[in-house]
Amino acid sequence: MTPRTRTQDQFGKHSQAYAKSSALSNQENLRHIIELTAPSKNDRLLDVATGTGFLAIEFARHVNEVVGIDFTDEMLAIAKQYMIDESIGNVIFETADVESLPFGGSSFDIVSCRFAFHHFLHPETAISEMARVLRPGGKIVISDISSPEDNAKSEYQNEMERLRDPSHVKHYQTSEILHMLEDHGFDILHAEDWPMDFGFEEWISMSEPDAGSVKRVKEMMLAATEHELTDLNVRLRDGHIRFTYNTKIIVGRKR
């Protein structure tokens, strides 16, 4: 199985879990991303790796047209039903890959990507494609989990993620994402932290790793409560593990 098909398989099998995720459906977070992006009613927006469509549909309330792309059909089926349930008519969902977008240059005023960047096999290619389809002066907004700038802590966090989810590539340090954007012709307008709490059980259920991996990840989480191994603020309360991801909302403008 190739990395690409592994990712499709992973998201296909767990599309319902992502649809029910309290973090992904967090309305306050979605609205804040839109507030920071400041779209206009005339804008055409591309939502990359749209998944179950939460951000695409929220943006649709504020722009002229949204195109949401993903390469997992099961995710797109949920997004299309959510669009119907919300009585939204200005969204088109299509099967496509961020590394080879089927759109002409300067086709969009805004390109967005939420909680997907860490799955991209070739992030530089993805950003290059997002920049290509964005008009000069257009905006890009990327919201994703960021790992600590301390390299050892960053690798510890990513090791846990790879055990939990075989489609995980990397939680990038904020500095890495900023450099990639700047190298591809973007000026950074805004970069803001958005801490997001997770319960271990919900988090692990989104990918359903084997029992051995669950045991190892839990051990690593508990070790992090005793030592400064990562910046996840892991807490153990009444036998339940909770932790806090540092997510980042980054808005840039294409030169």
Write the layout of secondary structure elements.
Layout: H1 3-13, H2 15-19, H3 27-37, E1 44-48, H4 54-60, E2 65-70, H5 73-85, E3 91-95, E4 108-114, H6 123-133, E5 134-145, H7 151-164, H8 174-183, E6 186-199, H9 200-205, H10 211-226, E7 235-237, E8 240-254
Parallel strand pairs: 1-2, 1-4, 2-3, 4-5
Antiparallel strand pairs: 5-8, 6-8, 7-8
Helix pairs in contact: 7-10
Task: Describe this protein's structure.
The protein has helices at residues 3-13, 15-19, 27-37, 54-60, 73-85, 123-133, 151-164, 174-183, 200-205, 211-226, and strands at residues 44-48, 65-70, 91-95, 108-114, 134-145, 186-199, 235-237, 240-254. The chain has 255 residues and is α/β, with parallel strands linked by helices. It has one domain: Rossmann fold. Strands 1, 2, 3, 4, 5, 6, 7 and 8 form an eight-stranded mixed β-sheet that branches. Strand 7 (235-237) and strand 8 form a beta hairpin.
What's the gist of this structure?
The chain has 255 residues and is an alpha/beta fold. It has 10 helices and 8 strands.
What portion of residues is helical? Answer: 40-55%
Just name the CATH architecture: 3-Layer(aba) Sandwich
Number of helices: 10
Strand content: 25-35%
What CATH calls the topology is Rossmann fold
Class from helix and strand fractions? alpha/beta
Radius of gyration, whole Å = 18 Å
What's the order of the H and E elements?
A: HHHEHEHEEHEHHEHHEE
How many extended strands? Answer: 8
Largest sheet: 8 strands, mixed
Mean pLDDT rating: 91
Instruction: Report the top-level CATH class.
Output: Alpha Beta
Q: List low-pLDDT spans.
A: 11-15
Outline: globular
Number of domains: 1
Distance between the termini: 39 Å
- Report the CATH superfamily: Vaccinia Virus protein VP39
